[in-house]
Amino acid sequence: MEASPLDIAYGEDVFNEKAMREYLAKDTVETLLHTMNDRAPLDPSIANEVAHALKQWAMMRGATHFTHWFQPLTGTTAEKHDAFFEPVGTAETIARFSGKNLIMGEPDASSFPSGGLRCTFEARGYTAWDVTSPAFVKRHPNGATLCIPTVFCSYTGEVLDKKTPLLRSMQAMDKAVRKLMACFGEPDGHAIITLGAEQEYFLVDKSLYLKRPDLMQCGRTLFGAPPARNQQLEDHYFGSIKPRVLAFMEEVERELWRLGIPAKTRHNEAAPAQFELAPMFEELNLAVDHNMLVMETLRNVADRHGLVCLLHEKPFAGVNGSGKHNNWSVAYNGKNLLDPGKNPQDNAIFLSVLASVIRAIDLHADMLRASTAHFGNDYRLGALEAPPAIISIFLGDELTEVIKRIEQGETASEENGKVGKLRVGVDTLPPIPRDTSDRNRTSPFAFTGNKFEFRAPGSSQNCSGVCMALNTIVADSIEHIAEAIATLPKATFHEGLERIIQEIIRKHGRVIFNGDGYSAAWVAEAEKRGLPNLRTVPEALAVLLEEKNLALFASRGVLHPTEMRSRYDVFHAEYSRKVRLEGKVALETARNILEPAAVEELGQLAHILLETKQAGLKNGIESLKEKADAIGKGLDALHKGCASLEKALTQDAKAILQAMVTLRTAADTLETQVDDKRWPLPKYRDLLQIH
Ligand code: ADP
Ligand code: MG
After folding, report:
1. Does the reported pTM lie above 0.70?
2. Is domain 170-559 given the CATH code 3.40.630.10 in the classification?
3. What residue spans of 372-429 are helical by DSSP H?
4. Which of 206, 389, 409, 449 stands 20 to 30 A from 79 (CA)?
5. How far, in Å, from the CA of 169 to the mean position of ligand 2?
6. Residues 567, 561: Cα–Cα separation, whole Å
7. In angstroms, rounded to a whole number, what is the distance separating the alpha carbons of residues 103 and 115?
8. Measured in angstroms, how far is the CA atom of residue 448 from the centroid of ligand 1?
9. pLDDT tens column, 664-686
10. Which residue intervals of the chain bear CATH 3.30.590.10?
């Protein structure tokens, strides 16, 4: 082990190769590594030995329990702990954990959402070990738990989780990429999808959080007037990090490193009290599991520091929201295929993959948008500070120029000595900078030198849904292009390849947009180009049920139509439930917390007014009257708003959301009029400050 000033060792709580070598026989290690690296099926004959080793290893770290750790459709992770210990006789216990416990579990899962896939008589699903993501130990104040990453299925085989379709989509990519690479005469190998998930979050002081029922129940503020000083000064972004926050971040990082999660960068984000944690990219399945652990760790550690970590996409109105930039790429035999490369062969492969992505995004922007459909994200997408709900691709000037030259082909002119035409597979591409300074931040899907950065996903979302959709649509296009390339005669291979890429660009280039994604002009332009603009969750989710999408996901072996429909049901129900919950919390807060404060304020003013008059004072009466009038009007508006929301709660989501907006306007106006001392909710100016 390298010398380290830390009292922890990187990855010490992961059953990684080092731990395996320490606890398992050499042959077993090789078999297990082969299973992990080559995604081979697990050899059941080693399960007992591995289970025994895992138990010993975990108990050395204080673990008393084990759990299958899975990702149900709720978007979070789920665990059900079982103790290692079992009584034998009356006075003794033995630690038991068998290969069977390791490979398969049966959580009493009848309350996980399944969208009707499990009937009540078949309520139990089962979890099965995902050998490709290593087991780990989660430590807590009075013990530790061995966590075994698993998939979650019904007994009839339908998936009930987020991990299974992700793994299937990775297989679809593997198959497609291998086909494509074969066309280029590359040796047989494996495609590895890579993901670097940048995580944005807010921190608030716990004592203030506990006074906000909206934050506690909905994860965002349902009321709150914007403070005088919010983001206008832009002095927070990349500013120096306050010691209290830094102490929190350092503890987060140590916990993550212990779990083998490569937390790399930390900084202040655009909004006050907003921050970001970015890990180094990893293999997709692992990166997704790790991001789930990042979110959990942020929450847990914040609590120990008297803070609360808000992962909601839009905790504060009028202040920047939080996203999760998914940096995505695909490597083959260790080479990043989205790296343009330095020779014509690598360039040609790069351009083929790029063309596939362009085709995929143009054909299936709707599915990609649907993968980001999440109630919290509706407050962010299109709100002039996050990527718009319209999915387009940013390529940057240099690559756009390359694409243009290929698109124009024979018609390209030779001006000023510049070579117009670019021959794919023959000419070398001009250098494409890995621009970090002036890259377009308003694009939802940006090429950033050697990867794509998908910025629409919300900060609280599980990355698996997003990457599953991306993998599936790109796999489809890579297969499409590979099939076309496979028919090319050897003698005219490069001309043929160029023609194929050219056709794709001509047909699907409309999805490329390098301009300002926040502008109103783009909304109009995108509509002209025929690009979908799915503004809300219900609109976005509807596309899951379209025949073309059902067929696509079925044909790639990722989701069977019944599985897709069940997902639609689950996500739709979740949306309705969340809207209703917010509506109820808003009503309760307004009626039982805010209205009494306004009533008190009015009463106090009326009382003072009376006394002022009785005392025969000449001045101040008009001001008091004016003030009381304003409060009275505010109270009326609030009262009316409550009645409307109450009625809306018996109607649909749209009605509830509208009534909430009206009620909020009334409440936020009152907030600016009522005495600070009397306003019962902590204000934005306090919530957004960490001392
Ligand atoms: P930013 O300016 O957005 O912070 P960075 O270049 O620092 O951009 O990278 C952001 C994220 O992209 C990091 O998590 C990084 O590890 C990840 N990343 C870099 N290369 C790849 C790749 N080939 N595949 C996936 N993610 C990558
Ligand atoms: Mg980024």
Report:
1. yes
2. no
3. 375-378, 397-408
4. 206
5. 24
6. 10
7. 26
8. 8
9. 999 999 999 999 999 999 999 99
10. 170-559
